[in-house]
Amino acid sequence: MTVVHISQKASVLHMETVKEAADHLHIMELDLRRELFKVRLKKSILANKMKQTQT
User: Fold this and answer.
1) What letter does residue 11 receive in the DSSP assignment?
2) Model confidence over 1-39: pLDDT tens digits?
């Protein structure tokens, strides 16, 4: 659900519930970005180790 869609439905939705949902979505996004960063870092480290062992 995008911000535009939420704002269009604002008269029907309870604003505090919308805020809580948006907060939870934001926290989830941050958690997922952190995990993706960790995976990319591990991938990079492993790729460098493999490169070193091949030479």
Assistant:
1) T
2) 567 777 777 677 788 888 888 899 999 999 999 999 999
Question: Sign (positive/negative) of CA torsion 17, 22, 25, 30?
Answer: negative
N residues, the chain = 55
What does the pLDDT read at residue 15?
81
pLDDT band at 48 (very low <50, low <70, confident <90, very high): very high
Separation CA 3–CA 18 (nearest Å): 10
Residue 23 to residues 17, 19, 52: CA-CA distances in angstroms? 10, 6, 44
* Largest distance between two CA atoms of the chain: 65
Round to whole Å and give the CA distance between 22 and 7.
12
d(CA 42, CA 35): 11
